[in-house]
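User: Please predict the structure of the protein below. I'd like the answer in structure-token form so I can feed it into my own downstream comparison script.

Assistant: Understood. Taking the following sequence of 450 residues as input:
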Amino acid sequence: MSRQPKIIHIGGEKCVTGSCHLMQVKGLNIMVDCGLTQGHDAGASMDSWPVRPDRVDFLFLTHAHIDHIGRLPELIQKGFKGEIIATHATKALLEPMLNDAMGFMSLNRRQIAQIETYIDDLSWGFEYNLDFDLAKGLKFKLLPAGHILGSCSIHLRVEDPEWSVLFSGDLGAKDTPILPDPQNSEAADLVVLEATYGDRRHDDRVHRVQRLGRILNRALKDGGKVFIPAFALGRTQELLYEMDRLVSDREWQGAFPMLNPNSSVPVFVDTPLGLNITKIYARLSEFWDREAGELYRNGDHPLKFEGLYGVERSQEHRDLMGIPGPAVIIAGSGMCTGGRIVDHLKAGMPQPENDVCFVGYQAGGSPGRDIQRYAGKPGGYVVLDEQKIEIKAAIHVLTGYSAHADQNGLVEWVQAMPQKPAAIKLVHGESNARRALARVLREKGYRVEE
């Protein structure tokens, strides 16, 4: 049996979603992530995998977004009985994220409860920045990735022969609300690097908050509604944090009158999962960054403010559909592929006084990407629930709110390594993004495989 580690990219190699990577070494099958695909991205059947699910010994999870964990229930149904390794915060987020996802699968309550029990029994939470023994002379370390709460890069090291691989996971942008910055990377022979925004640059945080404030203030002046499609995990909490700053921070008070607490413009979080995740975020305040922690200790809860309302029950959602503007409505899903945001967009996009703000990546083939593509064009429309919906609302794209590092951030993370890796493998990016990032890295002397 070969002692040289072999890495097979089962999912997410040439696209953005469905991340799943297999490392075979010393007779072990070690998997990193097991995610669902979205949009046009295609996922491979588990029956065609190079290893059966019941032969996977360890599953590492970089974070709890569905495109990284969403196939875990299927993996368990196919016989997986190995260990699931993640950070403490990711372990805490698994149950609500997968429970929501399983609600859309052909599973009954008993099956869902059984899978949840399996996941709880098999999963283990670990601290950041500590070395742990895995098996057969392998060690691992989890490094803060700054993408969402609990996100990590994974450094796997083989002692004999000495060799290491660093899976970046999804790297976040610096100065992201609530989260510590991504940690400088460690030296490794091979780096498996995400490239989601390998061809773009984001606004900095100050300009991002200013843009959000200006858009919301202008949009609300005409009595319309602002719809924000947002992922329940990560983006919803970042938006609440920034809105709390706009409402509560003296630096911003007065700059945007429509967002003043006295203006009575309500902000609705119309996603039960997002509300549940926000509660979990509050319980995990020990993992927040210094700024958020200081606000919390000084009595300013950064995820709560006057005029913020949670919408949990279906009837409350239906009632919300009928309220007049002005109002801000944050709802899932982030790519408009389903969930309550679809109802709001169907009713609200044909109205020119309304606005839609995109604050996250929209995969090719997703309704969110189509809305961005056809907005402002004569007769522009999007298909939602098999209906053609006119796009008359104003469409805004705030790339500065991406939970992913931009090209500069990715390059800086690589350059922070004590020595250059022997190779960098780019994954988790569309072809244009991978090519652009590869070109920049090669110009700096790195060996890169797209």
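That's the full token string. The longest helix spans residues 205-221.
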